[in-house]
């Protein structure tokens, strides 16, 4: 039976303006938002998070990355395009083609469909803020001589974001690449845009990792705001209802210092003080799973 890896991440609470400079036609840079009930919540796309994963992989193992980003030229380069005798994409050779998939749409010599594509193995959800957005806006201006468009404004939101990743290591061309995804979670940086003006820390403040035979995550949106901190009462309910086996879970980060951690420990969930410690344990469990599978 295949093992599936899931992780739900909640970031620290800070002022976010991850809006890539998109506007409403005026000089206002807007946040992406969704409506839930009577409130609006800011959101960051899965594509923006995937971009940050790509950036991490380029930084730590560029030789294994096909699509690289050149910040000086502000453009992407595909190594596969330089090798006209080979394929543009190669999921065996390149980790990003393996994790994120690709589609190379083209016609053959006789005008037949010769499209090559691969579904991404790594799935990433949209990040949603834990707090409603109440319309906060920051103002700024260009330096030097001012004109009609010198004054600009930016929607900002003091909040934390949560999102989930899903991955079935056996679906990768090289299963050991799953460990690199876990490392990337704690190291991603440039999620969304506007980073020349705003720095927002998108690393985990707390994390829930699940390695399981169950193909459904069950841990999505398990964090919620609880006063000035973050809780996980929904996760505890699912454990008590026996919908989640507590031995499959590793929880780490700031949540370990809350009363929720005591309930998790009493349910025999592995709770770590740090996020990186939780990730290391998950990597060890992944390695053990692979070892047991190859010994059969």
UniProtKB/TrEMBL annotation:
Alphabetical list of InterPro entries matching this protein: Cas7/Cst2/DevR_bac (IPR016581), Cas7/Cst2/DevR_sub_I-B/Tneap (IPR013414), CRISPR-assoc_Cas7/Cst2/DevR (IPR010154)
Source superkingdom: Bacteria
GO biological process: defense response to virus
Coiled coil: none
Transmembrane segments: none
Keyword list, A-Z: Antiviral defense
Cited function: CRISPR (clustered regularly interspaced short palindromic repeat) is an adaptive immune system that provides protection against mobile genetic elements (viruses, transposable elements and conjugative plasmids). CRISPR clusters contain spacers, sequences complementary to antecedent mobile elements, and target invading nucleic acids. CRISPR clusters are transcribed and processed into CRISPR RNA (crRNA).
Protein name: CRISPR-associated protein DevR
Organism in which the protein naturally occurs: Nostoc piscinale CENA21
């Amino acid at each position: 039976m295949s093992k599936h890896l899931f992780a739900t991440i909640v970031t620290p609470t800070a002022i976010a303006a991850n809006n890539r400079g998109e506007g409403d036609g005026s000089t206002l840079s807007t946040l992406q938002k969704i409506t839930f009930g009577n409130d609006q919540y800011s959101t960051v796309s899965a594509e923006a998070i995937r971009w940050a994963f790509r950036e991490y992989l380029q930084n730590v193992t560029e030789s294994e990355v096909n699509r690289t980003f050149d910040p000086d030229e502000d453009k992407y380069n595909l190594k596969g395009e330089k090798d006209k005798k080979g394929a543009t994409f190669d999921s065996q050779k390149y980790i990003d083609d393996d994790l994120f998939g690709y589609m190379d749409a083209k016609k053959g010599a006789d005008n037949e469909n010769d499209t090559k594509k691969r579904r991404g193995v790594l799935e990433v959800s949209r990040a949603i803020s834990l707090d409603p957005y109440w319309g906060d806006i920051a103002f700024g201006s260009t330096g030097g001589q001012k004109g009609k468009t010198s004054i600009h404004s930016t929607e900002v939101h003091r909040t934390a974001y949560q999102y989930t990743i899903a991955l079935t290591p056996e679906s990768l061309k090289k299963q050991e690449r799953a460990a690199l995804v876990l490392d990337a979670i704690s190291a991603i940086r440039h999620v969304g845009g506007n980073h020349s003006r705003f720095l927002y820390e998108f690393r985990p403040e707390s994390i829930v990792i699940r390695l399981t035979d169950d193909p459904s995550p069950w841990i999505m949106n398990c964090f919620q705001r609880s006063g000035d901190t973050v809780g996980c009462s929904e996760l505890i309910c699912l454990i008590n209802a026996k919908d989640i086996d507590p031995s499959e879970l590793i929880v780490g980060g700031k949540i370990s210092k809350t009363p929720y951690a005591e309930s998790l420990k009493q349910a025999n969930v592995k709770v770590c003080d740090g996020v990186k410690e939780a990730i290391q344990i998950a990597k060890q469990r992944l390695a053990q799973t692979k070892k047991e599978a190859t010994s059969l």
